[in-house]
Design brief:
The complex is a heterotrimer of chains A (222), B (58) and C (242). Chain A contains nine helices and no strands. With 222 residues, chain A is an all-alpha fold. Chain A has one domain. In chain A, helix 2 packs antiparallel against helix 3, helix 3 runs parallel beside helix 7 and helix 7 packs antiparallel against helix 8. Classes of the chains: A mainly alpha (222), B mainly alpha (58), C mainly alpha (242). Chains in contact: A-C, B-C. Chains B and C meet through helix 1 of B and helix 1, helix 2, helix 3 and helix 6 of C.
């Protein structure tokens, strides 16, 4: 197995361990979605209306949760230095780590979303729309998030600075994700346009994220 | 004097806010400048200087 | 004097010492003229009455808020690409200024919006984009403080600034799109290139005043930052030597 493949498998194995962030991510998603009805009240009509937004916010926050350890853990045990020194381009290594993060944290959120959507009384069309937009959008959240994770590597209170830096960058993804999901709820607005823009944002983040994160790592580790 | 109309309060508030924000910026920069110069003079007095020993009057 | 000549901090400080009083004086004069025109000469708008006078603060603040991120972006390129020594200093000095002008823009816009739209805040495209810009300024300031070594902080902030520069048009574009998917709000559209000269001229004078103010503050803040780094160097020397 080549180096990148090994990195992918290693990261996925670490993530699914109990302290690794993947199971906790889904749990956090569940808790957030549960908290909102406590805050806004049990009116099902209201929950149905804001359901996609709640699910998207929960997915965003849960994705963020596991990101701050993405590079910090490797930095602590020295494997980040090994990755930096290896012959594999750093951008690819970062992309692979981001992919591992998405497979273990983002994808479970996509799978959990339809179940949680039942708590919010969404109809099947809305559930489908939310799941599809999350599937297209959570990679963007991860790949933008790695930029913040790279900044947060050598910094104390890294988790907070990560959130402050990453959340403004993820706002366009949130906007289009919720807009696309909402088209299944509000009237005859087409699903296509916001969804394709969401996909475009994801594709952009697949490139910009690893490059920016790699640059941040290189400059941070000098 | 000028006629500010029924919303005079908002206009005055806006201009006051500008005064406060700009004043705070200027104040911060001036105070910071004095603090840095004081510290540099203090370090200079203790004999700690950089390689180029010309003291700039900034 | 080429830009690289200014790379020497001592030379730069000398230049600032000479130029700063002139800039400050020019800014003061521009403000005096601008405020006189804005408050006493400019007529009231037939639709908005006297509240149009808030525009003379609000619009220049908005222009500066965006201009400042542009300046930080150029400084970021200076740090990453050309490694110009004063680029770091310029970037760090600009961030609080940009945040302050963005805040002023949001605040005066809100005070203008309350009488005109009936609400202190609406989630339309431009407001939301400027709010996100404010958050990004705060993020940059936070990053400057959190990384201890100034030159490492500079590189991290430079990357964040560049990514932010990409994000800003995306946000602006995305919330415009988002607004069309909801009920469009009835937004009073004013200004644009068809402002009557009696209001346009004071606006341009105020804009000039704000720009001169920004240049003054920026150079002064850069000077402070250079001095701060000298203090840090000396303190490190002291600690090492002791």
């Amino acid at each position: 197995m080549n180096a990148l493949g090994a990195l992918l498998v290693r990261d996925m194995r670490i993530a699914v361990r109990l302290g690794g962030g993947a199971p906790i991510g889904v749990l956090f998603f569940l808790i957030v979605v549960t908290l909102v009805p406590f805050a806004v009240g049990p009116d099902l009509a209201l929950l149905r209306r804001i359901g996609p937004a709640i699910l998207w916010l929960g997915a965003l926050l849960a994705s963020l949760l596991a990101l701050d350890r993405l590079f910090a853990a490797d930095h602590e045990d020295g494997s980040l230095d090994l990755i930096l020194m290896s012959r594999v381009p750093l951008e690819l290594a970062v992309a692979v780590k981001a992919l591992a993060h998405w497979l273990t944290t983002g994808l479970p959120l996509v799978i959990a979303a339809p179940v949680l959507a039942l708590f919010l009384d969404l109809d099947p069309a809305a559930i489908g729309a939310v799941a599809l937009t999350l599937l297209a959008g959570t990679p963007a959240l991860t790949f933008i998030g790695v930029i913040g994770a790279a900044f947060a590597v050598t910094v104390r209170r890294g988790g907070l600075i990560l959130a402050v830096l990453v959340l403004p960058l993820t706002i366009p993804v949130l906007i289009f994700g919720v807009a696309a999901a909402n088209t299944a709820i509000v009237g005859p607005v087409p699903f296509g346009p916001p969804f394709t823009i969401l996909c475009a944002l994801t594709l952009m983040s697949l490139v910009i994220g690893p490059f920016a994160a790699a640059a941040a790592l290189r400059h941070g580790m000098e | 004097m000028m006629e500010l109309g029924p919303y005079a309060g908002f206009i005055v508030a806006a201009y006051s806010a500008a005064l406060v924000v700009i004043g705070a910026l200027i104040g911060w920069i001036v105070v910071d400048h004095r603090a840095q110069r004081r510290t540099l003079a203090d370090l200079e007095a203790r004999g700690i200087t950089r390689r180029s020993s010309t003291v700039e009057a900034a | 004097m080429a830009l690289i000549d200014l790379a020497n901090p001592t030379r730069f400080l000398n230049l600032v010492a000479r130029v700063l009083p002139l800039l400050a004086g020019a800014a003061a004069i521009a403000f005096a003229v601008g405020l006189y025109q804005a408050l006493l000469v400019a007529p009231n708008d037939y639709q908005q009455g006297a509240t149009v006078k808030i525009m003379f603060i609000h619009v220049p603040s908005a222009w500066l808020a965006m201009f400042c991120w542009g300046a930080m972006t150029i400084a970021a390129l200076g740090t990453l690409v050309w490694r110009h020594p004063l680029a770091d200093v310029a970037a760090k000095a600009a961030a609080p200024l940009g945040a302050a002008f963005t805040f002023l823009c949001l605040l005066t816009g809100s005070l203008w919006g309350r009488p005109m739209w009936g609400a202190y805040w609406v989630w339309d495209g431009r407001l939301t984009s400027v709010l996100v810009l404010f958050l990004m300024y705060l993020g940059v300031i936070a990053l400057w403080r959190v990384v201890e070594d100034p030159s490492r902080a500079a590189r991290a902030v430079a990357i964040l600034t560049l990514v932010g520069a990409i994000n800003l048009p995306i946000i602006k574009f995305s919330v415009d799109w988002w607004a069309t998917l909801h009920q469009p709000a009835s937004v009073l559209r004013l200004g644009g290139p068809t402002i009557h000269p009696s209001i346009l001229v004071p606006l341009l004078v105020m804009a000039l005043a704000f720009v001169l103010l920004f240049l003054t503050l920026h150079l002064a803040a850069m000077r402070n930052e250079i001095l701060r780094r000298r203090v840090r160097t000396l303190r490190l020397l002291q600690a090492r030597g002791a």
